[in-house]
Amino acid sequence: MKKKRIVHHLDDSVTFLHRLVDGVSHRQIVMLAALLGLLFAAPHVLGKYGLSVLILVLYFAYVGQAWNIMMGFAGQLSLGHALYAGVGGYVAASLFLHYGIGPWAGAFAAAAIAALAGTIVGYLGFRFSLSGVYFALLTIAFGEFTRIAFDHFDWVGGAGGLFLKVDQANDPLNLRGGPLLFYYVILALAVGTFVLCRLLLESRFGRYWLAIREDAEAAQAVGIPVLRYKMYAVMISAALTSLAGVWNAFYYNNLFPETAFGIGRSIEITLAPIIGGLGTLFGPIVGAVVLTGMGEIFTSAGDALGIPGIKQIFYGLALIVIVIYRPGGVWPWLAGRLGLTERRR
User: Fold this and answer.
1) Is residue 345 part of a domain?
2) CA-CA-CA-CA torsion sign (252, 257, 259, 264)
3) Which residues span the domain enclosing 77?
């Protein structure tokens, strides 16, 4: 009996690996392995500044991938994803501060509550056939309502913010430590979500989302449960985004409703996949590299020239140029040049 169980587990592992690498060339696998190796070794080569930049790249790649599930795969535009990141951060930080519940356990509560919030937003929008810009406005409205509510919620600090004790002691169980700890946590989240998205795309979820994104009415006509699979996309995306909020709260040790739920945070989440390539696996990663790199370059240029606001000006101009000349995103163009063409899902 035990032998049969072991064989069954081995078969499941083989099936999992087959789904993961199906359609991926040997060259692509080697390059992915090399990239992962470089990312693991990078903190031991880079200085503090380089590590902080790489942390930002991985953070935006992660939240971009989470948002990409909803917009890039299922075609549902959300401009209020800060709601889920903010809720996740506040839930985990509050449980830790008031009850001593560790962030790993708090992350499960954060994901569950964020998924519930996504269910409410999604059901109200999809049940009444809101789509496109109208659904996007609904997501913004929910984010703003939540921001105003948390401004007056004294248990979590209200408008004055919620603060965690700064602790550089290496305590992974409580997510307390220096940048190196948070680097490997966000790296694990980014890699895990990349794998999850790959599996989702190769499953029934991915095929149904593609059909819904291209033509929801036609998908409904051929028997696809459109509402259900739209709801799945919102719930998965919301839960994953909430984990970024948990990481963010413990990394920066503070939360303010104005920034945690602000529209600016939601726009930040959307930029990496839009610039990198919607509906692609590598788009959010490439977009995060481009955006973070440009941000650091323009910040340095602004400091050197002593011109206030130059970062925002050139940052905006660069984004406009990319959107105009690479409307499909940077990654599809780059992949074509490298012979690593990834089809847009």
Assistant:
1) no
2) positive
3) 48-262
First-to-last alpha carbon distance for the chain, in angstroms, is 42
Residue 4: predicted pLDDT: 57
Q: Which segments of the chain have a pLDDT < 50?
A: 7-9, 13
Give the predicted TM-score (pTM) of the model.
Answer: 0.91
Kind and range of the H or E run holding 163: strand 162-163
CA dihedral sign of residues 256, 257, 261, 263: negative
Phi, psi (5° rounding) for residue 255? -140, 135
Q: Which residue in 100, 51, 6, 39 sits closest to 292, CA to CA?
A: 51
Q: Which two tokens stand for residue 123?
A: 């059901």
Tell me the two tokens of residue 85: 């990141």
Question: In 3D, which of 311, 98, 343, 310 has the Cα closest to residue 201?
Answer: 343
**127 occurs within a structural domain:** yes
Q: Which of 262, 270, 268, 269 is nearest to 146 (CA)?
A: 262
The dihedrals phi and psi of 308, each to the nearest 5 degrees, come to: -65, 135
Measured in whole angstroms, the distance separating CA 77 from the mean position of its chain's CA atoms is 14
For residue 337, being part of any structural domain is answered with no
Give residue 103's Cα distance to chain centre.
18
Query: What distance in Å separates the CA atoms of residue 280 and residue 322, rounded to the nearest whole number?
Result: 17
Q: Give pLDDT, residue 305.
A: 75
Rounded percentage of the chain residues whose pLDDT exceeds 70: 90
Q: Cβ(298)–Cβ(311) under 8 Å?
A: yes
Q: At what angle are helices 2-21 and 179-201 packed, to 10 degrees?
A: 90
C-alpha 231/C-alpha 335 separation (Å) is: 32
For residue 21, which phi and psi values (nearest 5 degrees)? -105, 5
Residues 148, 263 contacting (CB under 8 angstroms): no
Residue 143 one-letter amino acid? G
Angle between helix 226-252 and 82-99 (nearest 10):
50
How many distinct structural domains can be found in the chain? 1
Q: Is the dihedral of CA 203, 189, 278, 242 positive or negative?
A: positive
CB 315 within 8 A of CB 321: no
Which residue's structure tokens are 């800060």? 82
